[in-house]
């Protein structure tokens, strides 16, 4: 999937977390969580040469390439997710921690709709995919654009639905 699709999915994940913790819409926590969501969503593609995340975190992506980590393996695995979770748990307040973690997890999850599949259980070399190949969403395709718009609509609908009082108070 494209970086922008992953960002929207990460944003949606962060919104879900904010609603769960009932964080006020107009707060620094909300702003930080949404930003984290947008960044954590595409982060796993740091393993893909030429991706924006690989460029932004160049030293890390360089190391991954040096040790020959293939795309959609280590950084897209459940093992890595737990590793990041264990590392960040003591560092971030709960809403930010879960926003980051679920946004990060959304990456591998939506990659499962792609035809290439994901090695979720890396280092076990087994590719997972949620849809049969003929139905899978090809990266950059018309289907992916549609999928992204659905996610985007949800991103707009969620705050409108649950923060209506605050949203309507703005106008
Ligand atoms: Zn990916």
Q: Give the integer mean of the pLDDT values.
A: 93
Largest sheet: none
Low-confidence stretches: none
The distinct ligands, each listed once, are: zinc ion
- Report strand %: under 5%
Number of strands: 0
What structural category arises from helix and sheet content? mainly alpha
Distance between the termini: 36 Å
Q: Shape from CA axes?
A: globular
In which range does the helix fraction lie? 55-70%
Please give the count of helices: 8
* N to C succession of SSEs: HHHHHHHH
Task: Give the domain tally.
Answer: 1
Rg calc: 17 Å
Keywords: Hydrolase, Membrane, Transmembrane, Transmembrane helix
Organism: Paenibacillus ehimensis
Protein name: Metal-dependent hydrolase
GO molecular function: hydrolase activity
Set down the secondary structure blueprint.
Elements: H1 3-20, H2 28-43, H3 52-56, H4 58-66, H5 78-88, H6 94-111, H7 142-162, H8 164-169
Helix pairs in contact: 1-2, 1-6, 1-7, 2-6, 5-6
The structure holds zinc ion.
Pfam families: YdjM
Organism: Paenibacillus ehimensis
Keywords: Hydrolase, Membrane, Transmembrane, Transmembrane helix
Protein described:
The model has no long low-confidence stretch (mean pLDDT 93). This protein starts with a helix and ends with a helix. With 171 residues, the chain is mainly alpha-helical. It is 61% helix and 0% strand. It has one domain. It has eight helices and no strands. The site of zinc ion has 6 residues, from helix 6.
Key features?
171 residues; mainly alpha; binds zinc ion
Summarize the structure.
The chain has one domain.
